[in-house]
């Protein structure tokens, strides 16, 4: 671990504290780095923006991608003050950075009242057994659009 990497994580932790103290949301911060330069930052902003998806990682990914003018975080490192929840884990996989560093882990988060274990458990359940039931509807109509996508020329693959 280099001093520079420690300074990026310190920045993520500082963002977690300032966001919390400003009432933006929970104590979570995130910094995205490319070529040793910060290209995106975020703190949890769920309360400030009434956006349940405004976790620090998602806010930072949006900021970084906007600054890069690209939908992928190729060659980027993510520094997050806490091990990502399942939603952020998914967002990170879609953004495809090269590495993730986290400070607090899932157990620390659960102790602070942010327990996301139930989401991992829900993923394993059949649709009808989930707390929020999922039901298939109008598959054939939607499938027609996928078929159009498969046939579509000049599309951007991602
Ligand atoms: Zn999250």
UniProtKB/TrEMBL annotation:
<keyword id="KW-0479">Metal-binding</keyword>
<dbReference type="InterPro" id="IPR016192">
    <property type="entry name" value="APOBEC/CMP_deaminase_Zn-bd"/>
</dbReference>
<dbReference type="InterPro" id="IPR016193">
    <property type="entry name" value="Cytidine_deaminase-like"/>
</dbReference>
<dbReference type="InterPro" id="IPR002125">
    <property type="entry name" value="CMP_dCMP_dom"/>
</dbReference>
<protein>
    <submittedName>
        <fullName>Guanine deaminase</fullName>
        <ecNumber>3.5.4.3</ecNumber>
    </submittedName>
</protein>
<dbReference type="GO" id="GO:0008270">
    <property type="term" value="F:zinc ion binding"/>
</dbReference>
<keyword id="KW-0862">Zinc</keyword>
<comment type="similarity">
    <text>Belongs to the cytidine and deoxycytidylate deaminase family.</text>
</comment>
<dbReference type="GO" id="GO:0008892">
    <property type="term" value="F:guanine deaminase activity"/>
</dbReference>
<dbReference type="GO" id="GO:0047974">
    <property type="term" value="F:guanosine deaminase activity"/>
</dbReference>
<keyword id="KW-0378">Hydrolase</keyword>
<dbReference type="Pfam" id="PF00383">
    <property type="entry name" value="dCMP_cyt_deam_1"/>
</dbReference>
<feature type="domain" description="CMP/dCMP-type deaminase">
    <location>
        <begin position="3"/>
        <end position="134"/>
    </location>
</feature>
<dbReference type="GO" id="GO:0006152">
    <property type="term" value="P:purine nucleoside catabolic process"/>
</dbReference>
